[in-house]
Design goal:
heterodimer; A: mainly alpha; 9 helices; about 75% helix; elongated; B: mainly alpha; globular
Amino acid sequence: MTGPTRDRACAEIREAIHSRFDVGDGASPESRLADHLATCTACREFEADLRVIRRGLASTPELELPDAVLREVWARTIDAERRPTPGFGFRWRALAAAAALVLLAIVGVWRLGIPEPEPSPQQIAEAKRQTRLVLQLTTDALRRTERASVRGVLGEEVSPALRRVPIRWAPASTKQRSGS
Amino acid sequence: MDGDAFERLVREQKNRVYSYAAMMLRGNVEAQDVAQEAMVRLWQHRARVDPAVAHLWLRRTVHNLCIDRLRRCKVRPEADVEPDETPAPEEQAGPQRLAESGELRRQIERALGQLKPTDRAVLLLREVQGLSYAEMTQTLDLPLGTLKARLHRAREQLRRRLVRTGVTP
């Protein structure tokens, strides 16, 4: 048997070799397999290689899961289930704490004050008008106060003193009167 | 499944699932995370899991978590990279000596890490952990024909890699 025919036979036999390793899962007839292996070096080597590889894999040691990891598993599973659930007293304490926090928040906002809204353009214009009016009134009051003060100085408070002081009044010249 | 049954199952399977995850992920720390997460998920879903196949449910969860992690890393450990560890001819030991010294097993494990995760999975479950085809179909959720084809391909891939690195069994 040579060429493509042999190649096909080898391919089939290799499938049979695979299957022989999976005994109980559909093994092919042993006699055909044995006959071919007896004459085909390549397939014999193939089978021998797989035997060694499988032996090597089977001898791989099993790792030990660290205890710390296992403890973490228990903590997240069985132990978490066994932890006692919060009772009646705990719930009321939690509610009271929440109510206290809400009250504190309300008081805090009240003390800090609620920021006033921005004034409208009309309010700004009215405020300007009132400010100008106040300024005008204040200016008038100051002028009246000044005149009153001057009158007071020259007329009332000072006039008694002026009466006691002799004053020679000489009419000023035009030039002097104009202030030059 | 009650707490006692869960505890019994975890104690029976913990090392097996951890070892599987470690060989899939090629790292012990990630494997510990995966093993822990799978056990916790089993607890969370215990009402829906049939106790008779809870061990397979656990294995499938571990397998899926491993595949997810490998996809997220987007690293296929040397799967498409030609191995560059060809020893010099004078350093190549015969297969018998390698087998005796444990070096062959180390070379096999190294070549195993270079396979695609799906191929690595079938070899680990079948050759290392000794699952039957029926258990493997339930664990991997694959039809029997696909499973056999994948297993046969994985064995040949592994052999080819070992031959390429000069470790001819």
